[in-house]
């Protein structure tokens, strides 16, 4: 009879449920070479994601399917290093962008803002898959959609200024999340009801880890849509708006 060798680390069974680096073994006082190289590669991917750029041309072409005008804006952070060192500049539009929005007078319900954040890679790879699920849901509920906005060197709060200028009742910021060592392609969706400059984060709702290996597009779009509907129904967002729908199945 063949002898069955049981794994010595009880955490090995948990590897099936997480991409976290657990039960990777050791070589002497260090970790095995293969796992060490994988760690360095993941770190390189995370660094690359932080310095990645929005594929404006490619995204613009794909956004045509929604038949919505697209605006291109920029924060007060002029370049990537300044953006990383001065988060405050990423929360405000530069003068040219403010002038671009100055002539808007038509009120609207929802403005979708696509922002690079800390991983433009996440946006380039995943935002279209999410929008293809989400925009039809918003349209079936008769929400009036503003122009789609793409903004570079942006932080979440920049959506308040954009939405206020576009006279939108709710802002939905789709932004590249801070890359980790198990994911460099995750989108966060931040929604704010009655957005205006000066709001703080307790007045927002967030749906995070949107990517094929995280919260998939269908699940994410249903959760966002539920929160948008509830925000309009209750005329608020943030800590007072709870997700009571539970985890919606993507099957």
UniProtKB/TrEMBL annotation:
E.C. numbers: 4.3.1.7
A GO term from the CC aspect: ethanolamine ammonia-lyase complex
A biological process term (GO) from this entry: amino acid metabolic process
Record keywords, A-Z: Bacterial microcompartment, Cobalamin, Cobalt, Lyase
Subcellular compartments: Bacterial microcompartment
InterPro entries: EutC, EutC_C, EutC_N
Secreted recorded as keyword: no
Keyword Lyase: yes
Entry-linked Gene3D superfamilies: Ethanolamine ammonia-lyase light chain (EutC) (3.40.50.11240), Ethanolamine ammonia-lyase light chain (EutC), N-terminal domain (1.10.30.40)
Cofactor binding annotation: Binds between the large and small subunits.
Pathway: Amine and polyamine degradation; ethanolamine degradation
Needed cofactors: adenosylcob(III)alamin
Binding site for adenosylcob(III)alamin: 156, 177, 206
Reactions this protein catalyses: ethanolamine = acetaldehyde + NH4(+)
Single GO term (MF): cobalamin binding
Highest rank taxon of the organism: Bacteria
Matches recorded under Pfam families: EutC
PANTHER family on file: ETHANOLAMINE AMMONIA-LYASE LIGHT CHAIN (PTHR39330), ETHANOLAMINE AMMONIA-LYASE SMALL SUBUNIT (PTHR39330:SF1)
Function: Catalyzes the deamination of various vicinal amino-alcohols to oxo compounds. Allows this organism to utilize ethanolamine as the sole source of nitrogen and carbon in the presence of external vitamin B12.
Family: Belongs to the EutC family.
Subunit structure: The basic unit is a heterodimer which dimerizes to form tetramers. The heterotetramers trimerize; 6 large subunits form a core ring with 6 small subunits projecting outwards.
The protein's name in its UniProt record: Ethanolamine ammonia-lyase small subunit
Originating organism: Mucilaginibacter corticis
């Amino acid at each position: 009879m063949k002898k069955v060798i049981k794994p010595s680390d009880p955490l090995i069974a948990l590897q099936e449920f997480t991409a976290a680096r657990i039960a990777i073994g050791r070589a002497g006082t260090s970790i095995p070479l293969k796992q060490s190289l994988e760690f360095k590669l993941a770190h390189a991917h995370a660094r690359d994601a932080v310095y990645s750029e929005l594929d404006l041309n490619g995204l613009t072409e794909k956004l045509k399917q929604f038949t919505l005008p697209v605006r291109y804006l920029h924060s007060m952070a002029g370049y990537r290093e300044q953006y990383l060192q001065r988060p405050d500049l990423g929360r405000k539009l530069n003068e040219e962008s403010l002038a671009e929005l100055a002539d808007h007078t038509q009120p609207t319900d929802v403005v979708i803002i696509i922002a690079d954040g800390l991983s433009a890679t996440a946006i380039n790879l995943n935002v279209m898959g999410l929008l293809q699920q989400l925009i039809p849901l918003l349209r079936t509920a008769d929400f009036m959609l503003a122009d789609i906005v793409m903004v570079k060197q942006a932080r979440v709060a920049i959506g308040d200024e954009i939405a206020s200028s576009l006279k939108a009742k709710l802002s939905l910021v789709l932004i590249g999340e801070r890359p980790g060592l198990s994911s460099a392609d995750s989108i966060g969706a931040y929604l704010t009801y009655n957005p205006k400059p000066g709001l703080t984060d307790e007045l927002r709702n967030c749906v995070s880890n949107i990517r094929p290996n995280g919260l998939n597009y269908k699940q994410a779009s249903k959760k966002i849509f539920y929160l948008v509907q509830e925000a309009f129904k209750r005329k608020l967002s943030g800590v007072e708006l709870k997700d009571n729908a539970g985890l919606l199945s993507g099957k």
